[in-house]
Specification:
Largest sheet: 4 strands, antiparallel
Number of strands: 34
Shape: globular
Number of helices: 2
Strand content: over 45%
Length: about 400
């Protein structure tokens, strides 16, 4: 009897498996038939669905503040600096360097003892130096790479694409002394300047640098660029390195020098000029009004000027590759500007707008609170308040 029961049980199980297989096969055949019918009748139903989809509005930028780790609090409302670095945020206050991811989570922190910390950014590294002090440090997102000291007070420091650092100090005998260090902190180049060095810009592979100096000629402030290669150094009879080329003096106070393709842009307080790769002046643009803020990306420089009589602003963009200059009057006062790619972002009291390089509007977001500045990275804008940093979506 037990054997007969087991045999019957096996038969029932086989029947159930067969029924399950048949049901699955029927479902598969129904789905396949539905897909085939949809493909064959696509021309009838797809245009209607496509029309419905195109009517769905695209997501808009809003002033809704991010939650989670935001806002980032700044203790005591101390002065701080914020920069985008390698898809992260580098934040420096009067005692620490913090690295946060895009969501605000802290991934690294380091305490410093600098009285006047200044941060300069490379591709993936951070150079932190003590303005007026004698120390500087190189950091990645996760650690301190090296810390070094100078004999004289530091005036400025810059960082190149291959983590090459330029540090300019005072000197008893010279207005400025430049020291260049490789990615490991080894000193590879020195230059003693008889003029004040106000900027150092590395070339594309950090095999050389453009040194910007200022002086006085005929009662006017003038600027000059000198180009040096670290692998091709000739020395004068006095033992000083001889530049490969240098520009003629230009009557403006240089604020920044940037390499833009095969051009070199000098942005001054009264005019901007760009040079070819041999240091010859290619073109210049004299300002009509007072410069308020500027931003330079790989191809475009954007400048904000103020019309003090009408309390409005003007946006001027310079495309160094094409030589095109665009002037766009704005009907309100602009406080800050940032260029990202070929898009210009401007901050006004209560709003942030994105514009084309010709000044045509793209999108805008209203802010409920006034902020001191902003930093755009990816699809976000980080808002710099007195004692906190907030984040909003901005595509």
């Amino acid at each position: 009897m037990a054997v007969t029961d087991i045999s019957m049980l096996r038969q029932r199980r086989k029947k159930k498996k067969a029924m399950k297989f048949v049901k699955k096969l029927v479902i598969v055949l129904i789905i396949a038939a539905a897909v085939l019918a949809a493909v064959l009748t696509k021309d009838l139903w797809y245009p209607k669905l496509d029309g419905i989809l195109t009517k769905i509005p695209a997501p808009e930028n809003t002033a809704e503040l991010a939650e989670g780790y935001f806002p980032l609090s700044i203790e005591g409302g101390a002065s701080y600096q914020l920069s985008a670095i390698d898809n992260c945020l580098a934040l420096v206050d009067d005692s620490h360097l913090f690295i946060h991811n895009t969501d605000g989570k802290m991934i690294f922190s380091a305490q410093h003892t600098y009285s006047n910390p200044i941060m300069t950014i490379g591709e993936k590294k951070i150079l932190l130096y003590d303005l007026g002090g004698k120390s500087f440090s190189l950091y990645s997102k996760y650690k301190n790479i090296y810390t070094k000291s100078t004999d004289e007070p530091i005036l400025i420091a810059r960082l190149g694409k291959k983590d090459t650092a330029a540090v300019v100090t005072k000197s008893e005998k010279y207005p400025s002394v430049l020291m260049v260090y490789d990615e490991n902190g080894k000193n590879i180049f020195n230059y003693r300047s008889v003029s004040r060095i106000i900027d150092v810009t590395f070339n594309s592979d950090s095999s050389g640098c453009y040194i910007t100096t200022i002086g006085v000629s005929g009662g006017f402030i003038v600027s000059r660029i000198l180009y040096y290669r670290f692998d091709r150094i000739d020395y004068s009879d006095l033992g000083d390195p001889v530049p490969i080329w240098q520009t003629e003096d230009i009557q403006t106070l240089a604020l920044s020098v940037r390499i833009m393709g095969d051009k070199i842009l000098l942005l001054g307080d009264t005019m901007c000029a760009y040079y070819d790769s041999s240091g010859q002046l290619a073109d210049s643009y004299e300002y009509k009004r007072r410069l308020v803020d500027y931003s330079i990306d790989d191809e475009i420089a954007a400048m904000i000027f103020v019309n003090e009589e009408r309390r409005t602003s003007e946006l001027v963009t310079v495309d160094c590759q094409s030589g095109m200059i665009s002037e766009k009057p704005l009907d309100h006062e602009v406080l800050n500007v940032q260029v990202s790619g070929n898009v210009v972002y401007i901050q006004s009291s209560g709003s942030i707008d994105s514009l084309t390089e010709m000044g045509e509007p793209i999108s805008s977001v209203h802010l409920d609170t006034d902020y001191d500045g902003f930093c755009r990275m990816g699809g976000y804008i980080y808002l710099l308040g007195y004692d906190e940093i907030n984040r909003i979506d901005f595509n």
